[in-house]
Amino acid sequence: MTPALNGPFSQPSRVALIDAYFGERKVAPADAWKDVYRLLLWADPTTGLAHCYESDKAQPGRPWYARTLAFHAWVAAQLSVGADELPGEIDWMFRSVIQRVAAEETAKRQILAERGRDQRNPYEAQGMPEPGDDPELRELLEPLLPEAHDQRPSPEITREVLRTIRAYIASENKRKNLLGRGFEDVLKGILDRLDGPRPAQTGVQIALQEIPGFRAPRPGDKEEKVDLWARTGKGARALVSAKWSVRADREKQFFGDYRTYVTFNELREPFGFYWLTNEFDPARLRANATYIEGNRPLFDAVVHVCPEALRVVHDLGRADLPKTLAELREHLDSGRIISLASWLELVSRS
Fold first, then answer.
1. What is the C-alpha to C-alpha distance for residues 54 and 245, in angstroms, rounded to an integer?
2. Total-model pTM
3. Which of the residues 9, 53, 202, 238 could staple to 272 if both were Cys, CB 3.0 to 4.6 A apart?
């Protein structure tokens, strides 16, 4: 297997991490959200709080900062850790990837450093910049260092700090890739480890024609893939669009996906179509819970990782809710928005 296929952010590596995290443990549906959060939820580096909304809108003084504080406190209490301990309790998958990236970078740098010394020898008297020295990043770091030279770190340590920061920034930019596909992998890992009844088949990023009852595309047509699917014990097919969160301009994709599934469905039996998410924007949740396609709801249900966290973040227990939040509460109460636990039980027993 090539390094690209087996790199730290690859699908085989993600699956290996999930296997290592769960071990032989089975997952109770009611507790599955905790595993999702421990594996994938992260602390926003600008606030230190568990991330539930766009970072720029969740800064101190803005409305979403108060909501994020409520979310952070609630999740910490549910996971039985202090609020200051929560960042170390979550984001297990990404932190594990970063550790591997750092180890691989160190090993690679040690090999290349020896070659680099030989390459630098002819220029030794010219004062060439040292590898790993980032002038722009150093300018930001310099004002933070002590003025007294005997209190300042050595040039070697400073360069190592700069290299570490640069590697972290590069890896952080890949979080979206890990989160997008990692969310699907974690959900499949949970489905396959349910304590009690579980689906007969599961799959992620699977070609539509590999799901029973769907035909293959015609020659030359684009191959359609499904984020996540499960076949229940009774043979029902549940197709899932798994998106941790979603931008408004991407919501049209849901309609296109559903129409494709209908077109390629060769069985008379219907299939279930679900949106599984950790989205906290009430307008987006409300919209996806009410979309209609072909005289039926687009989604059989919107599935939220933890609806109780939604109630906490938006304080849905109060009487004077604005219209959007009142409708969100109605969808939660009526079952248009259901919990991950409820969905796991649905696809396991139906």
1. 10
2. 0.84
3. 238
Q: In sequence order, which residues have a C-beta less than 8 Å from that of residue 121 and are 6 or more positions away?
A: none
> How far apart (Å, rounded) are the C-alpha atoms in residues 258 and 108?
46
Q: Which residue in this structure is represented by tokens 């409305």?
A: 63
Could you tell me which residues come within 8 angstroms of residue 141 by beta carbon, excluding any fewer than 6 positions away?
158, 161, 162
The full DSSP string for 171-193 is HHTTHHHHHHHHHHHHHHHHHTT
- List C-alpha distances in Å: 227 to 73, 181, 188, 197, 244: 31, 8, 10, 22, 12
What is the DSSP code (8-state) at residue 297? B
Structure tokens of 282? 């009430």
Question: Helix (H, G, I), strand (E, B), or coil: what is residue 241?
Answer: strand
Q: What is the pLDDT of residue 1?
A: 41
Residue 2: pLDDT over 60: no
Query: For the residues 299-311, what does the mean pLDDT come to?
Result: 98
Residue 315 near residue 200 (C-beta atoms within 8 A): no
β-pairing, 237-243 with 225-231? Answer: antiparallel
